[in-house]
Design a protein that fits this description.
mainly alpha, single chain
Length: 94
């Protein structure tokens, strides 16, 4: 597991991420931004659509699960913070 985290934190995979060509705002779902729930849901759906076609989606999800546990606002690897928290629980990474 440590090896995976070290590989992930070098972040060379990020250079291949499709989100580099997108507006970063759609990947930031901040409940304190003043956006209502519908706007946040639309932003999350748009971000997840980009993630679906991304060649490094798995690396990004791994980063979200291991390296960004305290990130409560970003879409990472096609998942929200709540979805990542549920995955961590399912696999015993709480």
């Amino acid at each position: 597991m440590t090896e995976l985290l070290e590989r992930d934190l070098t972040a060379s995979w990020r250079e291949q991420a499709l989100c580099l060509n997108e507006d970063p705002a759609i990947f930031w779902i901040d409940a304190e931004s003043g956006d209502n729930a519908l706007v946040r849901e639309k932003k999350a759906a748009a971000a997840k659509q980009v993630c679906e076609a991304c060649p490094v989606k798995t690396d990004c999800l791994l980063y979200g699960l291991l390296g960004a546990k305290d990130d409560h606002w970003s879409i990472l690897g096609g998942t929200t913070h709540r979805e990542r928290r549920a995955i961590r629980r399912q696999i015993g990474w709480t």
